[in-house]
Amino acid sequence: MRRLIAAALAVASSVSFHAPASAADPKPFTYETARALVTVREPQIGPDGSRLVYVRSAGDYKTDRNDTELVLVDVASGARRVLTRDRIAIHAPHWSPGGDRLAYLASPAQAKPPQLYVLPMNGGDSEKVTDVKSGVDAYAWRPDGGGFAYVAQDDPPKTKAPESYVAAFAVTDEHFLTREPSRPAHVWTIGADGKGAKQITRGDAAPAQGGRLQWTPDGATLALVMQPDPVFAHFTRARTALIDVASGTIKPLRAEGIDGGGPLSHDGTTIALSVPRHGTVYLQHDLSVRALADGREVASGASIDRNLHWADWSPDDKAVYAGTADGVRSVLWRMPIGGTPARVDLGDVDFGADATIARTGAIAFVGQRRDAASEIYVLQPGAAPHRISDENAFLSGYALARRERFDWTSDDGTAVNGVLTYPLGYTAGKTYPLVLDIHGGPVSTSTWGCCGLEGVLDQVLASHGFFVLQPNYRGSDNSGDAFLSAIVPHVTSAPGRDNLAAVEALKKTGMIDPARIGVSGWSGGGLQTGWLVGHASFWRAAVAGAGVYDWYEQAVLADINEEFARDFLGGATPWTKAGRAAFDAESPLTYADAIRTPLLILSDTGDQRVPISQSYAFYHALHDRGRTVKFVAFPRAGHFPTDPVGRETALRTWSDWFDRWLK
Prior knowledge:
663 residues; 15% helix
């Protein structure tokens, strides 16, 4: 679930947008256009800054598969070549300490778990280093380049039972779709030649999913975020631990508290942690630099006052760079140790929090713009960002809708902002239908970067003649801790008031047809949609995807469990009369009788994050009352379809509903 009345349109900075007026003008953006989009991610700049690699991903709509490749680029000349072909699900590339080899994870065959590969950069094929039954989750080069540490889940226990037999298991905080007990993962080491695999950690403690595995420079210690056991929901109790490689002993960095981990300094004396300000992983995280010896804080980035997305060290360890959202932008900060943080000037390029820093100080990152799809950029010291890839150059032949920041004031005086996408070919003085596209999280932010998942939806809606507003309601992580924390305890109704006020503000501009206003969103955006149609009658149509419609069901069936609901509802628990009343007051299902808006409900059947049972309940609450409602389920695992055809089908179903009701 990751992030309003008086308003004025913010003046856009000087960016050119296309508005077709004749047959010679660029073509409108369609879902067929989106099929050609290439995703770039995980840029890894080499130690000396002369070369970088990134993962290139494109959808194959015939096989319904996401194909990946590793691309090598010479930073000075821009010359590029593909390093890998016919590898499946490539991810996590990392240069060897000397820059002579490249490691990465990939599946050796379809439906097989990922293994660790090493590619020599002086020629030759990739060599498979691991052959782990459950696959490799994360890894790190040993400082001398002679081997790796890696994380792998334990093999299933051996049994004499028939192969088709499924054993019973005790349930603790697993989600309702769980079919086997959670198996722990442990840290191993192995030589770069694939020999000498050795298990380092044992016991119940497990690496947190997505945690960063790091060696100290002497090769004696590993730093990793650990949680008490392998149950996913218990990542809320995770904290950085130091693992003695020789003995396997695990020691928490700090005696108390939780954190989300962070990068070690190059000299191994400090670590830049992501630390929750309020003791819960679900609210704001601040940058906190800690001594590795005793865990004491030596520098704080709390004055940045934005939820931390990414961090890494400058080559000399005298500063930490941090990526956050800010307003409708994704930005980069530089925090000198002992000094004041300052924004790094990236011009009209936004900082995608997927970056690496070379020994030269050059930063490779995924750059985002509001008039182009994301590409790989390099920021050299003292220079402006330089685009190093051009995977989506074909978009120059298509019309992209104008996107601007929009500001308004909520009913209690709270300042709120969002991204407003204009209809393609917008003409001043005319009125147009409006669709709200509300982000999930709720701790997230809609930025004006173009052509991501919901950016595709918004561009298509704009090409169909709609205004689209992506509101950053309270609870979003773009405006500081006070704004983010203001979502507690009214997790649904407080953001809902912000979103209602956004509509009123847009009406006052005279650009919106008040009889043709729709609302939509996925996850937290689906939650908002469900609440908004129960609290206002002007909506002409609505699309709610994978929304929380009943906070009680969310607490007891989801993989993030009761703690997620409790923290956003101000400590309320559904097991007391007052707590259950608080849960019901913030649940859209409670207000089903007031809903008259034609509503489309979408969900994955295998959604562990927001179980589909809530969609069934919401559908029947409306259908049995004779309301206009349609429920479409996607037979997929996960919180949103990840396959190319599934993604496009979900977005088409979404936009078709608005074409039906708002045109």
